[in-house]
């Protein structure tokens, strides 16, 4: 990881324990000015906890947090220069939208004109002007979340924190608001830290994704890098839908060439870039269903003939289940080329696009 | 045209051959209904009958009561017993009726209710949202307090009140009521506040509101139902209290319940049943009115407070 010169948010050796349970362990993360970072991981991986620590809503056990170069480790949430958007919107039900937006500013004792100015700006950006006099109960889910974003916006802060903001919305609204959040980020150019378990949100929004598991950041990189070169089996399996194919076998050397062996299948690895010098160990070979060519003739470093087990149409394309080396293997095929069950088909791929993991540690080889 | 020709016979067949369709028929006088409403009516009568007897008796004169027909309506309606119960009945040395006790009870109930709810709601809020160190222990101690029999504490409290010079005064009784209401009220408020979404609390903290800011501006406006429940519990509980009233006050500061007991149980002369009945109804009127005015909110609040532990 390259160091960032003037990080907007910098987390240094952060630890958090609840009694004997360690939730976050000596975690380090630097977020650049204006960067959109997505914390991605399954439930219970500590991503929301990390966000709450940055917000100051949870007391940490060890480490330091800097925001804009200022040590805010012991600061109250309001003094950290953050705005936060919650999954359940968390709008104050008894206040109108306008009062909701202005609550923090009124608490801070800002002059009336300033409050009005900021509300006007935020409601214009988010297009919620017609809703200002309504109560949250009279708003739809999407409108509520827009107001919740507005509440962070009026605070005029450097860092926005999003805690699964779209998880309560239906699929259509989710994709709409996703685009809006992206546009908002482009317009405001603020630092944004966004927690989600949805890989699509992560891939589409992030400048960099931090994939978390068990309170540890597994990989922190640009979405494409994470997608194409996952550092371990967990990251590889978590990102991508349909999920990556994993074949369990072993690395073998044949003269000077390495290949991956599973039952009678031999996958040559001459085009694969190893992270380190390979050794003959049990390994896992991973390749994404969309990186496998289907019935498209020879010319691939690896080809095989096998028969179709199950066909799953998904609309735009079809997932074809096969057996390779006695293990399940899926291929993504465009709808027009959907085969029938039990058809005999050819598949081929270039191991250059594959990922090899150590069977024991799960780390990339 | 052909559509209709086909669909008509189909509908007829549907009715007759393919079994039930549409809403299930319900009969007003089904066995279930008779059983259900029969039970409800019997139970309602069972509870209403004593009240009926009381009202009827309180409107009769003494000669009519001596006839012994306690269920028959009054032949001659008189409000004399009510007036006597309110302003002339004798308790000990005073002969100014229940009015004195009524105002004593008001002066005990109002401050006790306000004080206990004010403190308990803040307690509950702090326990639910500001999980300070030892919060759970504190809560357990408080709840255990609710199970200690009152009898154990009566005498120690007498001594404490005497030592701080409040024994026999109304303010002493107010303090006692406030303390004894604390466990159950705190539990009530804690459960209600923990049922509120935690993100709301977090959002308010990010917005910069502090302990009191969040309590007064976010939590209070959202907790009307639970406050109504607390008010009802406290008003009825304190108004109906007899034990603390008789122990911690003097004759001139007796609450209404103690005075009622003294009127009803005074043995000199004739037992004036009509006055006793009127006095009893007068004493019970306040809780009764409170229930009637707030029935719906009460149920809603009880349900809301019970959801989460």
From TrEMBL, chain A:
UniProt cross-references to SUPFAM superfamilies, sorted A to Z:
MOP-like, P-loop containing nucleoside triphosphate hydrolases
Task: List the Pfam families.
Answer: ABC_tran (PF00005), OB_MalK (PF17912)
Kindly give the membrane topology term recorded for this protein.
Answer: Peripheral membrane protein
* Record keywords, A-Z: ATP-binding, Nucleotide-binding, Transport
Q: Which domain of life is it from?
A: Bacteria
User: May I ask which residue range the UniProt record assigns to the signal sequence?
Assistant: none
The record's listing under InterPro entries reads: AAA+_ATPase, ABC_transporter-like_ATP-bd, ABC_transporter-like_CS, ABC_transpr_MalK-like, ABC_transpr_MalK/UgpC-like, Mo/tungstate-bd_C_term_dom, NA-bd_OB-fold, OB_MalK-like
Question: What compartments host this protein?
Answer: Cell inner membrane
Q: What is this protein called?
A: Glycerol-3-phosphate transporter subunit ATP-binding component of ABC superfamily
- Name the source organism: Mesorhizobium metallidurans STM 2683
Automatic annotation (TrEMBL), chain B:
Primary site of residence:
membrane
Where does it localize? Cell membrane
PROSITE patterns xref list? ABC_TM1
An example Gene Ontology cellular component term from the record? plasma membrane
Question: Pfam families attached here?
Answer: BPD_transp_1
Q: Name one GO biological process term.
A: transmembrane transport
Give every ABC transmembrane type-1 domain span.
102-294
Q: Which InterPro entries match?
A: MetI-like (IPR000515), MetI-like_sf (IPR035906)
Give the transmembrane region(s): 34-55, 108-126, 138-161, 173-193, 214-239, 275-293
Q: Which UniProt keywords apply?
A: Membrane, Sugar transport, Transmembrane, Transmembrane helix, Transport
How does the protein associate with the membrane? Multi-pass membrane protein
**Similarity comment: family membership:** Belongs to the binding-protein-dependent transport system permease family.
Q: What is this protein called?
A: Permease of ABC sugar transporter
Whose protein is this, by species? Mesorhizobium metallidurans STM 2683
């Amino acid at each position: 990881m390259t160091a960032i010169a003037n990080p907007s948010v910098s987390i240094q050796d952060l630890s958090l324990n609840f009694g004997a349970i360690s939730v976050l362990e000596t975690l380090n993360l630097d977020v650049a000015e204006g960067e959109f970072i997505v914390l991605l991981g399954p439930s219970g991986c500590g991503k929301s906890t990390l966000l709450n620590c940055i917000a100051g809503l949870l007391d940490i056990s060890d480490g330091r947090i800097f925001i804009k170069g200022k040590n805010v480790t012991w600061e109250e949430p309001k003094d950290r220069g953050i705005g936060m958007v919650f999954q359940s919107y968390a709008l104050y039900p008894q206040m109108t939208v306008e009062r909701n937006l202005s609550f923090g500013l009124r608490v801070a004792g800002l002059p009336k004109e300033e409050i009005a100015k900021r509300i006007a700006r935020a409601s214009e950006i988010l297009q919620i002007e017609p809703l200002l006099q309504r109560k949250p109960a009279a708003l739809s889910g999407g409108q509520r979340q827009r107001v919740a974003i507005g509440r962070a916006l009026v605070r005029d802060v450097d860092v926005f924190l999003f805690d699964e903001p779209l998880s309560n919305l239906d699929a259509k609204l989710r994709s709409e608001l996703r685009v809006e959040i992206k546009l908002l980020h482009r317009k405001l150019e603020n630092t944004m830290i966004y927690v989600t378990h949805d890989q699509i949100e992560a891939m589409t929004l992030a400048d960099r994704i931090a994939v978390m598991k068990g309170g540890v950041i597994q990989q922190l990189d640009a979405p494409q890098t994470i997608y194409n070169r996952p550092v371990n089996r967990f990251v590889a399996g978590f990102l991508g839908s349909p999920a990556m194919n994993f074949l369990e076998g072993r690395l073998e050397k044949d003269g000077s060439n390495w290949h991956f062996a599973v039952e009678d299948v031999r996958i040559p690895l001459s085009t694969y870039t190893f992270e380190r010098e390979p050794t003959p160990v049990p390994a896992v070979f991973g390749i994404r269903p969309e990186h496998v060519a289907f019935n498209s003739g020879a010319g691939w470093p690896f080809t095989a003939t096998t028969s179709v087990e199950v066909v799953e149409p998904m609309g735009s394309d079809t997932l074809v289940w096969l057996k390779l080396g006695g293990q399940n293997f899926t291929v993504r095929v465009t709808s027009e080329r959907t085969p029938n069950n039990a058809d005999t088909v050819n598949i081929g791929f270039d191991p250059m696009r594959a990922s090899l993991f150590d069977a024991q540690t799960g780390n990339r080889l | 045209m052909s559509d209709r020709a086909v669909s008509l016979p189909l509908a007829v067949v549907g009715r007759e051959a393919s079994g039930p369709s549409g809403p299930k028929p319900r009969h007003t006088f089904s066995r279930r209904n008779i059983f259900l409403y029969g039970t409800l009516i019997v139970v309602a009568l069972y509870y209403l009958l004593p009240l009926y007897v009381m009202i009827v008796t309180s409107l009769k004169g003494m000669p009519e009561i001596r006839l012994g027909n306690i269920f028959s309506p009054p032949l001659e309606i008189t409000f004399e017993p009510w007036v006597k119960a309110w302003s002339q009945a004798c308790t000990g040395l005073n002969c100014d009726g229940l009015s004195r006790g009524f105002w004593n009870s008001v002066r005990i109930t109002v401050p006790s209710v306000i004080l206990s709810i004010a403190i308990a709601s803040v307690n509950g809020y702090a326990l639910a949202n500001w999980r300070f160190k030892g919060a759970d222990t504190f809560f357990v101690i408080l709840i255990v307090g609710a199970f200690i029999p009152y009898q154990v504490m009566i005498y120690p409290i007498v001594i404490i009140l005497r030592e701080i010079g409040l024994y026999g005064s109304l303010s002493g009784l107010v303090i006692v009521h406030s303390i004894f209401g604390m466990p159950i009220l705190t539990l009530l408020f804690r459960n209600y506040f923990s049922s509120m979404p935690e993100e709301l609390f977090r959002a308010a903290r990010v917005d910069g509101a502090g302990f009191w800011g969040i309590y007064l501006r976010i939590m209070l406006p959202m907790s009307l139902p639970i406050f109504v429940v607390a008010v009802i519990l406290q008003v009825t509980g304190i108004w109906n209290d007899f034990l603390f009233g008789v122990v911690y006050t003097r004759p001139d500061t007796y609450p209404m319940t103690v005075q009622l007991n003294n009127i009803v149980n005074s043995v000199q002369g004739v037992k004036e049943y009509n006055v006793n009945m009127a006095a009893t109804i007068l004493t019970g009127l306040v809780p009764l009115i409170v229930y009637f005015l707030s029935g719906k909110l009460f149920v809603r609040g009880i349900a809301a407070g019970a959801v989460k532990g």
